[in-house]
Amino acid sequence: MFAVEAEPSEYTFPPKTPCVVVRAVGGERLYPLASIADRVNGTGMWTDAIDGEIFTFHHAPDPNVVRVTSGAGEEAAVVIYCFWFAWHAMHPDTEVGGM
């Protein structure tokens, strides 16, 4: 149907790895849900920055759900939920975060 570029060697995600893509003013970054779950603190939150813009990841383990807010945590961030294989096929140059 359409060509898919080879998976980057530094990432070894199974094709159906659930991910979220966070869009910032300066770009976007893909985060596998498992890597977010590994990084949350005791409150279920983890913070990361994309091009200087701060995002807070709110994780609930059961079911495995992530909500992302920007700034002071009041504003919902633009987030796309996807599987690794689908996003990588269409956006192979997207930076991967949380690793």
Describe the structure.
The protein has a domain at 31-96. It contains two helices and eight strands. The protein has helices spanning 33-39, 84-90, and strands spanning 18-24, 27-32, 45-50, 53-60, 65-70, 75-76, 78-83, 95-96. The strands form two sheets. It has a four-stranded mixed β-sheet with strand order 7-1-2-8. Strands 3-4-5-6 form a four-stranded antiparallel β-sheet, with helices on one face. A hairpin with a 2-residue loop joins strand 1 and strand 2 (27-32). The protein is globular and about 40 Å long. The chain starts with 17 loop residues before the first strand and ends with a strand.
List the helices and strands and how they pair.
Layout: E1 18-24, E2 27-32, H1 33-39, E3 45-50, E4 53-60, E5 65-70, E6 75-76, E7 78-83, H2 84-90, E8 95-96
Highlighted features:
99 residues; globular; four-stranded antiparallel β-sheet; mainly beta; 8 strands
Distance between the termini: 31 Å
Shape, please? globular
Q: Output the number of helix runs.
A: 2
β-strand percent reads 35-45%
- The SSE string, one letter per element, is EEHEEEEEHE
